[in-house]
Design a protein that fits this description.
Elements lengths: L20 H26 L5 H4 L10 H4 L25 H11 L5 H26 L4 H13 L2 H9 L3 H16 L3 H14 L8 H5 L3 H22 L3 H20 L4 H4 L5 H8 L7 H26 L6 H14 L13 H11 L11 H11 L7 E2 L2 E2 L1 H18 L8 H22 L1
Helix pairs in contact: 1-18, 4-11, 5-6, 8-9, 9-11, 11-12, 16-17, 16-19, 18-19
Amino acid sequence: MESEASTLRVPALTSGSGLSHPLRKFLQILVLIWAATLISCWFQRNILHWPASNWYPFFLPEFRFNDFSSWRERFQHLHKPDFFDVPGLPYNYPTFAGLILDGFYSLGRFGLGVFLTFCVVVFSAAGLMLGRGMTRRGLDKGQTVLFLGTALLLSYPFWFLLDRANIEMINWFFVAAGVAAYWKRRWYTAATFLGLAVSFKIFPFVFLGLLFSARKYRALLWGLVVCAVTTFASNWIFGPTASLAAAGLSKGLQWYKLHYILEIHPAETGFDHSLFELIKLATFPGIAAEHAHYLPILNWYMGIAATVGVVLFFRKICRLPRANQILALTVASLLFPPISADYRLIHLYIPWGALVLISIPMRDRQQLRGLAFSFACLAFLMAPESFFAIHGVKFAGQLKAIVLFVLFLVSITCPFEEQAYEGEVEQAAGSHAADRHSLHSATV
C-alpha cells in the first residue's frame, strides 16, 4: 500500500521567504476597511455630530460587558429549585457553559477581569502557535510578526467579543484545540475537545464530521461519549436534579426562540450574520405579526438547512481536502443557525489559520484557485463595517451573511490541496505507520 507521506509534495523552501499574494491581499483589505470605518466614525461624530448609535462599531458603551453580567444575580440561586424562576433574562445556555460561567462569578469582583485576561491569553497563545508553524514553513520571522500582529490587532470579532465579554471564547478554545489536534492527527485528543465543545454549545457538532471523513470512527464515538457524559454530569451538578435542570433549560430556550429568533431587534440586526436574519428582514410583516409569520418560515428553513447540509457533507464536503472541510464546516456553523452574533465570527480564525499555513509553501505562480478570494472574504468578515447603515440602522451583519454564503460556495468548489513541508511529511508517515500497526494488532 502506498504510504500517505508519498502523496505529499514537498516544495523547495528558502529560509526567510516573504508573504504570498493571498496573505498580502488579506492585510490590504483588512487595513483598508478598518481605515474606512475609523474615518467614517470620526466624520459622523465630529462633523455631523450624530449620536453614537449611528456610528459606534459595537453596542453602545453603556452596554459593555453585558453578556457576562446578565445572569450574575440569577446564579446566586444556582443548585436551587427557583434558579429558572428568578425574574430577569431567562438562562438559555447549556448547563456545562453555566458551570464555567459560575466559576468566574465565584471570583467576585475579579471575575470579569480574569475572564478578559483568559480571552487575551488564549487568543495570543493561539497566534504564537500559528506563528511557530508559519516560520517552520519558511516564512521570515519579521514577516510573521508583522502579519499576525496586524491581523490579530485588527480583529473585529475578537474586540467585539471582549466588548460583550461573551463566554464564546471558551467554546472557541475547545473547538480550536480540537481542530488543531485533528490537523496534527491526534484523533482522540481532537475528539475530546470537540466533545466538550458540543456539550458547551450545540453548533460545534458539525466538526465531529472531520473525524468521520478521516474514518476515525472510534475517535468519533469517543467524542460523542465525552459530550454525553459531560452534558449529563453538568445537568446533575447544575441541579437541583438533572431532570429539573434539563426542563429549566428547555424553558429558557423556548423563551429565547420566541423573543429573539422569531422577532427582529433593530439595534441588534447589524450584529447578526445568520442567513435566517436576512430572510426575516426580507419578509418582515410588521411587529404585530412577527411570531405567527416567522414560525412556519423557521420550521421550513431549519428542515431545508439540515437536509441540504447532510447531503452536501456526505456527497461533497467529506471528500474535500482537510482545509476545505474545516472552512466549510466553520462557515456552515456560523451562517445557517437561525441566530448568530458577530462575536462568533472569531471561529473563522480556525480555518483562516489552516489557509495561512497552506499558502506559505507556495509561490505566487502556484496559488490555488479561490485561495486569494477566500482571504479577501475573510478580511471583510474580520473587519468592522459600521458605516453600512441607513438612518442609524446597521446592516453590516446582512452583508457578512452574503459574504459567508459566497465563502461557503468557494469552500466546496475550490479544493485547496496542500504542499506539505518536510516535518509534516515525517508526521504523516509516522501517523500512517501507527495506523497500520493498530490495524495489524486488531486483526491479529
